[in-house]
Amino acid sequence: MKSFLHETSKRKIKQRAILVGIYKKSDKAVNDDEPLDELASLCRTAGAIIVGRMTQLVERFSPATLMGSGKVEELAELAKREKADIVVFDTILAPSQQVNLEKRLSKQVIDRPGLILDIFAIHAKTREARTQVELAQMQYLLPRLAGGWTHLERQEGAIGTRGPGETQLETDRRLVRKRIGDLKKKLSEIEGERQVQRKGRSDLFNICLVGYTNAGKSTVFNKLTGERVLAEDYLFATLDSTTRRVKLSRRNEVLLSDTVGFISRLPVSLVASFKSTLLEASEADLLLHVVDLSDENFEERISTVNTILQEIGAGEIPILPIFNKIDLKNDPDLYRAILGRFPGAHFISATTKEGLPRLIADLETYLERSRVTIEITVDASNGRILKLINSLAYIVESRATDETIELKVRLPKSRLGKLKGQGVDFRVIDES
Fold it and tell me: What pLDDT is stored for residue 199 in this prediction?
């Protein structure tokens, strides 16, 4: 797995970066350098030093270089004056635009998705995360391939199947496509392992922490579980989904999962590559949406997270908003305004633990009200439905006859829709 921007883990050289934001007037209002603040945080996370910024509002993008020739010359002068090593664009560049800009600027050029992939490559620690990131990298690289990628050939070994007259570029593309296929197969196997793990915990209520990157999800997770999952003050500190059993009280035990943070304009290939990790959110019974209250743009962050939740099939799962970092934002008037928009929201500091006891108490109340006991009669030969029930519910009683199996099961109310969707008839006998 290769880091596109630089190999931070192997060398401590800090690259000097110029940030560029070119926005359509109709799409985004630029207020000073604010749109580039998040890009600056991403660059610092990747190990770069910010030595300059440039923003411009345009009526339309230039097909060749995104911005006009005059602005390109101005950027080239800025990069030369500041002795920049790299120019980072806060958008998605077409492969041809990236090539043209590198020629005009005589500097390495990278776009927002490439930067995010670089950070992911640095922070990926587990087999699953490394596989997911490499898949996204390969999908990102494929349309950008040019001659000279001989390192791919070395990774694959001698090329014995190359056709006569095949160019180096065609070889490289074929190698990348093959690698993409191999990685997809590997991720499919990992997802199969995850499904087996989920079957063993189907009777427990699933709670999943979601939120914008660096909102404090991992710190909340640590305080609720007593674990020491990596919780750093930088973007994308967590790439893997971590799940633990948590005893809220003697009566209530749940599964709590921490997930990869979301970010605006997340590359589609990255969302697809992280499907198995994001499934933790899409299969939860309750989502705790952790919001960084100290972030001036927290409302935009909420909107971004909600959009991605819809994209991964988690849009209908109940959400409890958790506004974190009140130790950094003590504003009662703001709290009241937020409660007007998000009734039932919690205000906490995961660092000082303020607000956590009330959150835990409310979660217990929610759990007591969210479970239901039902009776189901299933044809004994219907293995598909029996498998579905086992994956969704805790079986309290089971009584078999010659042709049917009568079941009494307990499960979260949020899972009833999955039974109905498969045509399963049931009778509710206890909603307490």
Answer: 55
